[in-house]
Amino acid sequence: MSGYSNSEITRMALIMAAGKLFAEHGIDGVTTRAIAEKAGENIGVIHYHFGGKDGLINAVMDFVCEPWSGDPLGTFLEAHRYLLKTRNGQNGVLVNMIKIFFSIFFSSERPSWCTTLGFQIIQRDLEVSRNAFKLAAVPNIKAFMELYYVVSGDRDFERAYNWSMTVTAPALLISINPLAIKRMHPDGAPSDKFISKLKFSCIHNALLTIQFLSRKGKKIKSEKIRTEQ
């Protein structure tokens, strides 16, 4: 923690404590007193740093969404759009987009409660929920949808949206309900090996569908050319 002031250390300790408790018990089930006790701080410190529970919730969500700022998937797609002209290029872009998604979603450098809490809060009708969805979820969905549009030649929004969700659904389901995975897993919790296998499965299934979409896209383009002639 060298290089950080005591104030910054205290602030981060409160964010870590709040995030873990929120993920385990829900936002409404956690008091500021419980957060302060878990962080080893006085309850007044929460009001000093965040102005109260709402401010702390906003700070926790800023921490949760921070890795998604800058739209990493969309940025990668735009930088490698030239590769989408060939099937191998399409496959490579898709594989790397999924790898980027997993590297952030299941980052070993961040608390495991981040994704669980993120989904909990997104489901609520709050300003912080709308902001989190706009920052962390929408860009990812749009990036996969854009890949669908380019590869398939199909501009149908609902089909593109559905495909984008099928690509990431396994990871989303684990994050939404981690307790179910822990209860079923023989080791009591998903391991790095488990996550690696999950990533491989997502990539394998996505490659199968993108090959189908690529053939469909060529058919759509050829039919369009014949119609124009």
Q: Key terms for this structure?
A:
229 residues, mainly alpha, Arc Repressor Mutant, subunit A, Tetracycline Repressor, domain 2, 2 domains, 11 helices
Question: How are the elements arranged and paired?
Answer:
Blueprint: H1 6-25, H2 32-39, H3 43-50, H4 53-65, H5 72-79, H6 87-105, H7 113-122, H8 127-152, H9 157-176, H10 178-184, H11 192-228
Helix pairs in contact: 1-2, 1-4, 1-7, 2-3, 3-4, 4-7, 4-8, 5-6, 5-8, 6-8, 6-11, 8-9, 8-11, 9-11
Could you walk me through the main structural features you see in this protein, from its secondary elements to its overall organization?
With 229 residues, this protein is mainly α. The chain has 2 domains: 6-57, Orthogonal Bundle (Arc Repressor Mutant, subunit A), CATH 1.10.10.60; 69-228, Tetracycline Repressor, domain 2, CATH 1.10.357. The chain contains 11 helices and no strands. Helix 1 crosses helix 7, helix 2 packs across helix 3 and helix 6 runs antiparallel to helix 8 (127-152). The longest helix is centred in the last third of the chain and has 37 residues, at 192-228. It is elongated. It starts with 5 loop residues before the first helix and ends with a helix. The model has no long low-confidence stretch (mean pLDDT 85).
